[in-house]
Amino acid sequence: MVSRTQIGIVGAGPAGLMLGHLLHLRGIDSVIVEDRGRDHVIDRVRAGVLEQGTVDLMREVGVGTRLDVEGLRHEGIYIAFGGERYRIDLARLTGGRAITVYGQNEVVKDLIAAREHTGRPLHFDASDVRVHDIASDHPRLSFCAAGQPHDVRCDFIAGCDGFHGVCRPTVPTGHLRIYEREYPFAWLGILANAAPSSEELVYSLHERGFALFSMRSPSVTRLYLQCATDEDIAQWPDERIWNELRVRLSTHDGWAPHEGQITQKGVTPMRSFVAEPMQYGSLFLAGDAAHIVPPTGAKGLNLAVADVWRLACAMGEYYESGSRGLLEGYSSAALRRTWRAQRFSWWMTSMLHRSDDPNPFDHKRQLAELENLVSSEAAMASLAENYVGLPLG
Ligand SMILES: Cc1cc2nc3c(=O)[nH]c(=O)nc-3n(C[C@H](O)[C@H](O)[C@H](O)COP(=O)(O)OP(=O)(O)OC[C@H]3O[C@@H](n4cnc5c(N)ncnc54)[C@H](O)[C@@H]3O)c2cc1C
After folding, report:
1. Residue 15 Cβ < 6 Å to ligand 1
2. Is pLDDT above 90 for 81?
3. What is the DSSP letter of 324?
């Protein structure tokens, strides 16, 4: 089946779905193709912290109704070490900006509903997804969906297909420069049916390693423990997880996470990755397809949204005026934000995770870094500005 669209979008994660929606609002047609099923895409538990700019954008483009009801606005976070918790007042330090806890799967659910409402194509369970002729002005997207082969002629293709997708590898060798760092630890994450015992997130450095207390809703807690990269989840029965969380998170004021039934467990590797540039010919990369950050700074989903906001503006300018100015500037502008987020995510990660190095120097340096952070308005303001997110523009 041969068809035509303006933008072929590969991937129905936050980047692909938000791009499709932003383009629709500008009257630009797109086809979104996703190789996983609708339920799988919706049920995938991943990020959960939205920057102020992401929240503002969702409201502005009409997908913020449920977010406004169910999202948990947080005006601060806690940093814990040495048995004490210190609050960083994000809103006071940033002129009223904050973060909102709202699961990535909820964002995806809202965006799928918005897409389905438009009636524009969104193909789930596609197989053999490929992009062709990306060096030309007439790229194509081919795939098989519902038993039918599709060949879609496009003006541009947006590679929003995540780190393991097909778009980035189609760029010919030598045209992308890769910057990468793998970390010698991972996160063991759980979801638990337990009411959060703190209204705000708690990031903790303990001598046994990092731990993070967060939540998804008034009745669901999300917790993470630093673990080995090859950690065997089978070695972590629920009781061991709660013991370790209690040890790493409890503070002298008597605070500890509430415990409950664990409904999901998983190990997430930690990686920093950037592919430059984020464009080749008619192919534009966005989100995890172009960059990965370790989750400590809560930037991955927000960066994906910032990329596609910029890309939609650029494509909008092209269709309105014929100018390619913003399209040509897309990669360098998106990379500038990406590297700011990489720096912040790396800094948070290196400040809060234990290294295996038996030399105690680094741990003492980390404690000094944390002391400096919680005792300096300037240092707290710098964390706050980056954590709530830089303005989109
Ligand atoms: C396992 C995991 C856990 C994470 N946990 C956290 C966390 O706790 N906190 C945090 O801040 N961030 C987390 N992140 C990061 C955050 O979720 C991502 O940055 C965010 O999902 C990026 O959105 P995206 O749309 O660019 O990519 P994705 O969400 O990866 O979406 C890409 C989409 O493309 C689809 N796709 C892939 N290949 C193809 C193909 N060949 N054809 C068609 N479609 C394809 C995928 O199925 C997917 O739906 C996590 C990421 C992962 C992978």
Report:
1. yes
2. yes
3. -
H helices present in 46-161, as ranges: 52-60, 65-70, 90-93, 104-118
Report pLDDT digits (tens) over 187-245: 999 999 999 999 999 999 999 999 999 999 999 999 999 999 999 999 999 999 999 99
Q: How far is CA 38 from CA 34, 122, 128, 264, 333, in A?
A: 9, 10, 17, 20, 32
Q: Is 280 a catalytic residue?
A: no
Annotation marks residue 364 as catalytic:
no
Tell whether pTM > 0.90.
yes
Output phi, psi for 73, to 5 deg. -75, 130
Contact 223, 189 (CB under 8 A): yes
Question: Which ranges of 223-286 would DSSP assign to H, the alpha helix?
Answer: 238-249
Chain-wide mean pLDDT for the chain? Answer: 97
CB of residue 161 inside a 6 A radius of ligand 1: yes
pLDDT above 90 for 365: yes
The amino acid sitting at 3 is S
Cβ-based neighbours of 192, under 8 Å, separated by 6 or more: 220, 221, 222, 223, 259, 260, 261, 262, 263
**What CA–CA distance (Å, rounded) separates 303 from 290?**
10
Q: What is the pLDDT of residue 175?
A: 97
Residue found under tokens 């082969």: 149
